[in-house]
Amino acid sequence: MRILLVEDDAAIVAALSELLASEGYEVESASRQDAAIDLLATSLYDLALLDVSLEQGSGFAVCAAAREVAPAMPVVFLTASDDEYSTVAGLDMGAVDYIAKPFRARELLARVNAALRRIQGQPTSLMLGDVEIDPVSATVRKRGEEVVLSALEYRLLLLFAQNSGSLISRERMRSALWDSAGEYVSDNAINVYVKRLREKIEDDPSDPRLVVTVRGLGYKAGC
């Protein structure tokens, strides 16, 4: 199983990587918020282990990105910021555990193992019509056949699947997918991204049923 470790202290990264590797985990690390978010957009992980205070950025921002890209992936905070406000904020964002530094190695391993066990046996798939999305492995299938999407197309599909039957404005799409990166994306650009997604998931992209345009308002995710 693969773990994303986001920590800017090189000594802690080395110690944790060795500890987790001894239990059979594959560890990939990032020391900055932007690097961690890039890894989440391009790679698959079974768990994210995040420090809150990074030299460049915040673990909370990484957690928010993780919830968008892989909502079923457990997130565990490991940090010296163990005040009540930080703890509650982390748990409210969807983290499954909050471990304060300094930590005991065996206790940390036990809590990582427990976090991974929590998702076992839980339904992991989301459906949008006949399109099935597995948020854990980030794979998409249509009637059993795998559909290959870019990272952005996948995140867009996930947004629609999580809001099936609901109107999604372009402003909401912009906020969910781009604002955290400091980008501005025009309505025309959003239309192009939706068109590309439709070409991959719709039976007839010229007559879409899964992602329907609501003129002047945005899009409605099909059921």
From TrEMBL:
<dbReference type="InterPro" id="IPR001789">
    <property type="entry name" value="Sig_transdc_resp-reg_receiver"/>
</dbReference>
<feature type="domain" description="OmpR/PhoB-type">
    <location>
        <begin position="123"/>
        <end position="223"/>
    </location>
</feature>
<dbReference type="InterPro" id="IPR011006">
    <property type="entry name" value="CheY-like_superfamily"/>
</dbReference>
<dbReference type="InterPro" id="IPR039420">
    <property type="entry name" value="WalR-like"/>
</dbReference>
<dbReference type="InterPro" id="IPR036388">
    <property type="entry name" value="WH-like_DNA-bd_sf"/>
</dbReference>
<keyword id="KW-0238">DNA-binding</keyword>
<protein>
    <submittedName>
        <fullName>Response regulator transcription factor</fullName>
    </submittedName>
</protein>
<feature type="modified residue" description="4-aspartylphosphate">
    <location>
        <position position="51"/>
    </location>
</feature>
<feature type="DNA-binding region" description="OmpR/PhoB-type">
    <location>
        <begin position="123"/>
        <end position="223"/>
    </location>
</feature>
<dbReference type="Pfam" id="PF00486">
    <property type="entry name" value="Trans_reg_C"/>
</dbReference>
<dbReference type="InterPro" id="IPR001867">
    <property type="entry name" value="OmpR/PhoB-type_DNA-bd"/>
</dbReference>
<keyword id="KW-0597">Phosphoprotein</keyword>
<feature type="domain" description="Response regulatory">
    <location>
        <begin position="2"/>
        <end position="116"/>
    </location>
</feature>
<dbReference type="Pfam" id="PF00072">
    <property type="entry name" value="Response_reg"/>
</dbReference>
